[in-house]
Design goal:
213 residues; mainly alpha; 6 helices
């Protein structure tokens, strides 16, 4: 290769070498600036950390502490024991207590479902039929105090239906007694009549028994 051919190549290589050297100097300068910038940021963070307690002391307030971590409140298990529902109660005398006992077993095994008295009363009314349902419907429509207390509601219910010898038929919406059982006619009501003298020929006055409890 002659000198004429090698001179352009030498100039090109020399130019590229010079350019690479300039790039190297530029990158070195940038790295130095980045280091200085990082040192400045670290210094500012240190100063800010030192100034926070001083500012709090000057104002008389301490920075609030982060709230303590609270353990998650787990909801109660919704899977409760299954208890078959009682047979519908129609007001049959002598079976009121056993019906209420069956209901109490359900409430005991399913405390989350029936957590308050009104829920228990609603379930009980849903199991009633016939005269018992008529009575409960009348009481519920009036929203008496017994509608908010399961004990008061069942106590009133037992006073009405837990008498096997007395079987009055009520019209609950009219608040009157429609009729009485044959036992009441032959014993309780006849005993309420005034004695009739054998010498008297007048027809005894029939007492008004519509308000007899």
């Amino acid at each position: 290769m002659n000198s004429a051919d090698s001179d352009p190549l030498s100039h090109t290589l020399a130019a590229q070498s010079s350019l690479l050297e300039q790039h190297d100097h530029t990158l070195t300068a940038l790295m130095e600036h980045m280091k200085e910038f990082s040192v400045s940021i670290a210094s500012l963070r240190t100063q800010m950390t030192a100034l926070v307690p001083q500012a709090a002391a000057a104002t008389g307030h301490t920075p609030p502490a982060p709230p303590p971590a609270q353990a998650p409140v787990l909801p109660p298990s919704t899977r409760e024991a299954y208890v078959p529902p009682p047979a519908p109660y129609s007001g049959d005398l002598g079976t009121c207590k056993s019906f209420l006992t069956q209901c109490s077993l359900i409430f005991e095994q399913q405390p989350y479902t029936y957590a308050n008295d009104r829920a228990k009363i609603c379930y009980l009314i849903g199991c009633l039929r016939g005269p018992a349902l008529s009575w409960a419907s009348a009481v519920w429509e009036k929203q008496t105090l017994s509608c908010s207390s399961y004990l008061a509601f069942t106590t009133e219910m037992k006073q009405i239906f837990d008498h096997p010898l007395h079987n009055p038929h009520f019209d609950w919406f009219a608040n009157r007694i429609k009729s009485w059982s044959t036992f009441c006619h032959s014993n309780c009501l006849q005993a309420a009549l005034p004695p009739v003298s054998s010498e008297s020929t007048s027809v005894p006055e029939v007492p008004d028994l519509s308000t007899v409890p």
